[in-house]
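Hi Y.,

Following your request, here is the sequence exactly as I used it, all 257 residues.
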Amino acid sequence: LSGLDPAQPYFQGTPNEVRLDKSDADFVDIIHTDSAPTIPNLGFGIRPAIGHIDFYPNGGEQMPGCGKNPVSQIVDLDGIWEGTRDFVACNHLRSYKYYSDSIIYPDGFLGYPCASYDLFQSGNCFPCPEGGCPNMGHYADKFKDKIKNDFMKLYLNTGEARDFPLWRYKVTVTLSGKKKVKGYVNVALYGSGGNTKQYQITKGTLKPDNTYTAYIDAEINVGEVTKVKFLWNNNWINPTLPKLGAATITVEAGQNG
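Below is the corresponding structure, written out as tokens. Let me know if you'd prefer a different format.
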């Protein structure tokens, strides 16, 4: 039984028999997309974990792409009706959009078990544990026999518009060069599954021999990494023409470490 952002008003805090609960089926998976408090945030979705596994995409409160200005949201790619509904209840309705995307991407929407969204964002719950991560949505039941805890809270990030799934990577760059400069470092990944856009790994003071790490949520599953593209820029013309390179770049995929 899959709960797509089950309702908060009149249901949160009620006895199990009143609301959706994991006792309602052999396997209950929940997607929370609008779980901010109803007052004052108008959150329509229930906040506590109530299933065997509970997914909190983007933290479960505010979905990317839902903060668009009202005009662009109402005149939506999917039509005025869809856009108007999104304007009124965009976060709430993301749950079924993620679900329908999950049918097309059996390897997408990996939920990382974590104590909080902040810890997930900072990379504390990376990569997936030994038993793997469940997939949010249609294929969540593949995880049915691997549940160990009473409640399992899972976190992930999604895109702003379809296609929604993102794949998480840890990218570590050690710089080489003669002296420190100011600027930023970008890396793009190339692999058997396709290429990503450039992602910023760090910005500010760049010191040779220093190591910089970032967690990126890529728009494709790169598959086996075949090469990486390293770019750096110091944002302004420097007459000393500083040079900077990458001594090493390490890429770790979230799904299998």
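The longest strand covers residues 167-177.

Thanks again,
Q.
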